[in-house]
Amino acid sequence: MLSAEEADTLQTLELFAVVWAISHFREPINIVTDSLYVAGVVAQIEDAFIKEVRNQRLYQLLMQLNKALHQREQPYAVIHIRSHKWNIGLGEGNQRADELVSTAITVPLPQHVLAREAHSIFHQNAKGLQKEFHISHAEATAIVRSCPICCHHNGGLGLGTGVNPHGVMANELWQADVMHVNSFGRLKYVHVTIDTYSHYIWATPQSDTRLGKTSPGP
Q: Which pTM value belongs to this model?
Protein backbone atom coordinates (compact mmCIF):
# COMPACT_ATOMS: atom_id res chain seq x y z
CA MET A 1 0.00 0.00 0.00
CA LEU A 2 1.42 3.39 -1.00
CA SER A 3 1.51 6.09 1.66
CA ALA A 4 0.16 9.51 0.71
CA GLU A 5 1.68 12.78 1.84
CA GLU A 6 -0.27 15.62 3.39
CA ALA A 7 0.21 17.76 0.27
CA ASP A 8 -1.21 15.08 -2.06
CA THR A 9 -4.31 15.73 -4.15
CA LEU A 10 -6.30 13.34 -6.31
CA GLN A 11 -4.11 14.15 -9.31
CA THR A 12 -0.80 13.75 -7.47
CA LEU A 13 -1.95 10.45 -5.94
CA GLU A 14 -2.80 9.08 -9.39
CA LEU A 15 0.53 10.33 -10.71
CA PHE A 16 2.36 8.87 -7.70
CA ALA A 17 0.92 5.41 -8.42
CA VAL A 18 2.17 5.51 -12.02
CA VAL A 19 5.62 6.78 -10.97
CA TRP A 20 5.88 3.94 -8.46
CA ALA A 21 4.83 1.30 -11.01
CA ILE A 22 7.26 2.52 -13.68
CA SER A 23 10.10 2.71 -11.14
CA HIS A 24 9.56 -0.72 -9.54
CA PHE A 25 8.51 -2.94 -12.45
CA ARG A 26 11.58 -3.33 -14.65
CA GLU A 27 9.99 -5.76 -17.10
CA PRO A 28 7.71 -4.61 -19.98
CA ILE A 29 4.59 -3.11 -18.44
CA ASN A 30 1.15 -1.86 -19.43
CA ILE A 31 -0.49 0.60 -17.03
CA VAL A 32 -4.24 1.19 -17.31
CA THR A 33 -5.55 4.43 -15.79
CA ASP A 34 -8.82 6.34 -15.80
CA SER A 35 -6.89 9.57 -15.27
CA LEU A 36 -6.70 11.51 -18.52
CA TYR A 37 -4.36 13.92 -16.73
CA VAL A 38 -1.82 11.20 -15.91
CA ALA A 39 -2.02 9.61 -19.37
CA GLY A 40 -1.40 13.01 -20.95
CA VAL A 41 1.55 13.80 -18.68
CA VAL A 42 3.28 10.49 -19.41
CA ALA A 43 2.78 10.94 -23.16
CA GLN A 44 4.53 14.32 -23.17
CA ILE A 45 7.03 14.42 -20.33
CA GLU A 46 10.00 12.59 -21.88
CA ASP A 47 10.71 15.44 -24.31
CA ALA A 48 9.41 18.23 -22.10
CA PHE A 49 11.27 20.95 -20.22
CA ILE A 50 9.96 20.81 -16.65
CA LYS A 51 9.59 24.24 -15.09
CA GLU A 52 9.41 24.43 -11.31
CA VAL A 53 5.85 25.04 -10.15
CA ARG A 54 4.36 26.33 -6.92
CA ASN A 55 3.07 22.86 -5.99
CA GLN A 56 6.30 21.26 -4.80
CA ARG A 57 4.73 17.81 -4.48
CA LEU A 58 3.65 17.89 -8.13
CA TYR A 59 7.07 19.16 -9.23
CA GLN A 60 8.77 16.36 -7.27
CA LEU A 61 6.62 13.69 -8.93
CA LEU A 62 7.14 15.13 -12.41
CA MET A 63 10.91 15.03 -11.94
CA GLN A 64 10.72 11.45 -10.60
CA LEU A 65 8.58 10.37 -13.53
CA ASN A 66 10.90 11.96 -16.07
CA LYS A 67 13.92 10.27 -14.48
CA ALA A 68 12.19 6.88 -14.27
CA LEU A 69 11.17 6.96 -17.93
CA HIS A 70 14.65 7.89 -19.13
CA GLN A 71 16.18 5.08 -17.06
CA ARG A 72 13.83 2.39 -18.38
CA GLU A 73 15.29 -0.23 -20.68
CA GLN A 74 12.08 -2.19 -21.25
CA PRO A 75 9.01 -0.87 -23.12
CA TYR A 76 6.00 0.51 -21.31
CA ALA A 77 2.54 1.80 -22.20
CA VAL A 78 0.07 3.94 -20.27
CA ILE A 79 -3.48 3.29 -21.49
CA HIS A 80 -6.38 5.60 -20.68
CA ILE A 81 -9.91 4.27 -20.21
CA ARG A 82 -13.06 6.11 -19.20
CA SER A 83 -13.79 5.67 -15.51
CA HIS A 84 -16.87 3.84 -14.20
CA LYS A 85 -17.70 2.49 -17.66
CA TRP A 86 -16.29 -1.03 -17.81
CA ASN A 87 -16.02 -3.88 -15.32
CA ILE A 88 -14.52 -6.42 -17.73
CA GLY A 89 -11.35 -6.57 -19.80
CA LEU A 90 -9.05 -3.58 -19.32
CA GLY A 91 -11.56 -1.99 -16.98
CA GLU A 92 -11.70 -4.92 -14.55
CA GLY A 93 -8.64 -3.86 -12.57
CA ASN A 94 -9.81 -0.26 -12.54
CA GLN A 95 -13.20 -1.37 -11.21
CA ARG A 96 -11.54 -3.39 -8.43
CA ALA A 97 -9.38 -0.40 -7.46
CA ASP A 98 -12.46 1.84 -7.32
CA GLU A 99 -14.21 -0.66 -5.05
CA LEU A 100 -11.22 -0.83 -2.69
CA VAL A 101 -11.09 2.93 -2.19
CA SER A 102 -14.84 3.55 -2.20
CA THR A 103 -16.60 4.52 1.03
CA ALA A 104 -20.13 4.24 2.30
CA ILE A 105 -20.52 8.01 2.06
CA THR A 106 -21.12 9.44 -1.38
CA VAL A 107 -19.07 12.59 -1.83
CA PRO A 108 -19.91 14.91 -4.76
CA LEU A 109 -17.10 15.05 -7.28
CA PRO A 110 -15.24 18.38 -7.51
CA GLN A 111 -15.99 20.50 -10.56
CA HIS A 112 -12.50 20.09 -12.01
CA VAL A 113 -12.92 16.29 -11.89
CA LEU A 114 -16.27 16.54 -13.68
CA ALA A 115 -14.67 18.85 -16.23
CA ARG A 116 -11.86 16.38 -16.84
CA GLU A 117 -14.32 13.52 -17.33
CA ALA A 118 -16.40 15.59 -19.76
CA HIS A 119 -13.33 16.64 -21.71
CA SER A 120 -12.24 13.03 -22.16
CA ILE A 121 -15.50 12.47 -24.07
CA PHE A 122 -16.34 15.75 -25.81
CA HIS A 123 -12.91 17.49 -26.01
CA GLN A 124 -14.18 20.99 -25.22
CA ASN A 125 -11.66 23.82 -25.39
CA ALA A 126 -10.41 25.60 -22.26
CA LYS A 127 -12.87 28.48 -22.54
CA GLY A 128 -15.80 26.08 -22.87
CA LEU A 129 -14.73 24.04 -19.84
CA GLN A 130 -14.29 27.18 -17.75
CA LYS A 131 -17.77 28.43 -18.60
CA GLU A 132 -19.59 25.10 -18.28
CA PHE A 133 -18.04 23.86 -15.02
CA HIS A 134 -17.23 27.21 -13.35
CA ILE A 135 -13.56 26.39 -12.87
CA SER A 136 -10.62 28.75 -13.21
CA HIS A 137 -8.95 29.43 -16.54
CA ALA A 138 -5.76 27.83 -15.21
CA GLU A 139 -7.60 24.61 -14.27
CA ALA A 140 -9.36 24.45 -17.64
CA THR A 141 -6.12 25.05 -19.52
CA ALA A 142 -4.35 22.34 -17.52
CA ILE A 143 -7.06 19.81 -18.40
CA VAL A 144 -6.83 20.59 -22.12
CA ARG A 145 -3.03 20.63 -22.22
CA SER A 146 -2.88 17.23 -20.51
CA CYS A 147 -5.15 15.71 -23.18
CA PRO A 148 -3.12 13.73 -25.76
CA ILE A 149 -5.60 14.74 -28.48
CA CYS A 150 -6.15 18.43 -27.78
CA CYS A 151 -2.70 19.53 -26.60
CA HIS A 152 -1.50 19.86 -30.20
CA HIS A 153 -4.22 22.35 -31.19
CA ASN A 154 -4.42 26.12 -30.77
CA GLY A 155 -1.29 26.47 -28.65
CA GLY A 156 -2.46 23.83 -26.19
CA LEU A 157 -5.85 25.47 -25.59
CA GLY A 158 -7.77 22.76 -27.43
CA LEU A 159 -9.91 22.47 -30.51
CA GLY A 160 -11.15 25.80 -31.82
CA THR A 161 -14.69 26.81 -32.65
CA GLY A 162 -14.13 25.93 -36.31
CA VAL A 163 -13.65 22.23 -35.57
CA ASN A 164 -16.46 19.69 -35.61
CA PRO A 165 -16.89 18.50 -31.98
CA HIS A 166 -16.52 14.80 -31.24
CA GLY A 167 -19.82 12.93 -31.50
CA VAL A 168 -21.76 15.42 -33.64
CA MET A 169 -23.77 13.79 -36.44
CA ALA A 170 -25.36 15.03 -39.67
CA ASN A 171 -27.74 18.02 -39.43
CA GLU A 172 -26.74 18.75 -35.81
CA LEU A 173 -24.21 21.56 -36.27
CA TRP A 174 -24.22 24.12 -39.08
CA GLN A 175 -21.71 26.92 -39.65
CA ALA A 176 -22.40 30.00 -41.75
CA ASP A 177 -20.54 32.83 -43.41
CA VAL A 178 -21.27 35.63 -45.88
CA MET A 179 -19.26 36.38 -49.01
CA HIS A 180 -19.59 39.38 -51.33
CA VAL A 181 -20.09 38.88 -55.08
CA ASN A 182 -20.44 42.37 -56.55
CA SER A 183 -21.48 41.07 -59.96
CA PHE A 184 -24.74 39.83 -58.40
CA GLY A 185 -25.92 43.42 -58.03
CA ARG A 186 -28.59 43.95 -55.36
CA LEU A 187 -28.25 40.33 -54.20
CA LYS A 188 -24.49 40.53 -53.81
CA TYR A 189 -24.40 39.05 -50.29
CA VAL A 190 -24.11 35.27 -50.69
CA HIS A 191 -24.96 33.42 -47.48
CA VAL A 192 -23.14 30.08 -47.30
CA THR A 193 -24.12 27.47 -44.71
CA ILE A 194 -22.40 24.09 -44.28
CA ASP A 195 -23.23 20.98 -42.28
CA THR A 196 -19.96 20.25 -40.44
CA TYR A 197 -20.52 16.49 -40.53
CA SER A 198 -21.70 15.76 -44.09
CA HIS A 199 -20.16 18.91 -45.68
CA TYR A 200 -23.51 19.61 -47.37
CA ILE A 201 -23.53 23.26 -48.52
CA TRP A 202 -26.53 25.60 -48.81
CA ALA A 203 -25.88 28.97 -50.52
CA THR A 204 -28.37 31.77 -51.27
CA PRO A 205 -27.91 35.34 -52.60
CA GLN A 206 -29.42 37.97 -50.29
CA SER A 207 -29.81 41.75 -50.16
CA ASP A 208 -27.96 42.21 -46.84
CA THR A 209 -25.62 40.42 -44.44
CA ARG A 210 -28.09 39.35 -41.75
CA LEU A 211 -27.61 35.62 -41.23
CA GLY A 212 -31.22 35.17 -40.17
CA LYS A 213 -32.20 35.30 -43.83
CA THR A 214 -30.58 31.92 -44.48
CA SER A 215 -32.38 28.77 -43.38
CA PRO A 216 -31.04 25.41 -44.62
CA GLY A 217 -33.52 22.63 -45.19
CA PRO A 218 -34.25 19.99 -42.53
A: 0.44
